[in-house]
Amino acid sequence: MAKITLVEAVTMALAHELEHDPSVVVLGEDVGINGGVFRATAGLVQRFGEDRVIDTPLAETMIAGMTVGMATQGMKPVAEAQFMGFIYPMVDHIISHAGRFRNRTRGRMSCPLVIRAPYGGGIHAPEHHSESTEAMFAHMPGVRVVIPSSPSRAYGLLLAAIRNPDPVIFLEPKRIYRLHKEEVEDDGEELPLDMCFVLREGNDVTLVTWGAMTKETLEAADKLAEQGISAEVIDVATISPLDMDTIYESVAKTGRCVIVQEAPKNCGVGAEIAANLADSKGLYSLQAPVKRVAGYDTVMPLFKLEKKYMPSVDRIVKAVNETLEVS
To answer: What is the DSSP string of 183-195?
Structure first.
């Protein structure tokens, strides 16, 4: 079984579906000959041809419109936005059409499309290349939002996203595209959507995160273990719809929760999780207020300051210690 990176797992999942499902097509800017900005589609056009792996003009609105049209006519298109900062021209088609077809046609039609986008900071990219605006898509009814955090989850979740009958926004944390390798078997086995993954069990505090921040969160859990603090780490994976049951179950055990997100704090996904925990199903389990460790409410700075913007291991550990001080 080969050890591969997260971006290689994306390529492998795309190739598997292109090979086994003739209705699947891949499209986007430079996805064919160049294999994509991050080489997530490298080699696919050579294997499957230009009818299945389609280089488009630099026109995100057109790409989104084509994708919706294909999806409503029996195909399963997988479109790429080169960076999340370039996805905004696609939003009209996503919210006005893709997310509404099932409701608009009273279930007669669905819109089985995937829009992939590298997202997040940490790679010294310029403006519009480091966004973490996943909460915007999580707010759109009828649209799933999925964020893998490891090679194995990237493979299994992308397979599930392509096979899903409804539109999926698949956000790939580019900071960890090549961070580490895992053994991933190309067996076509999908992972469940709409479900959190417990990456580490613990008893003292629940750490909830997703995407690239799983790296710092797991490192923080290791550092907390040196202090004798047992942290449970949950990877949300599908931020919409949220699997709150797994989070409720964990907080019922630990009594405390710290949410870690790279995105700005204001109106983020972390706020939604915290609000759910403050409701009746979670409130009586909490022994301390929920804390959020997040990016700042400003545009992601250029590379000299981006590390100061993103949540660090020390910030996560500090938040945990503060919540543990509450008796």
So the answer is: E---S-PPPPSS-
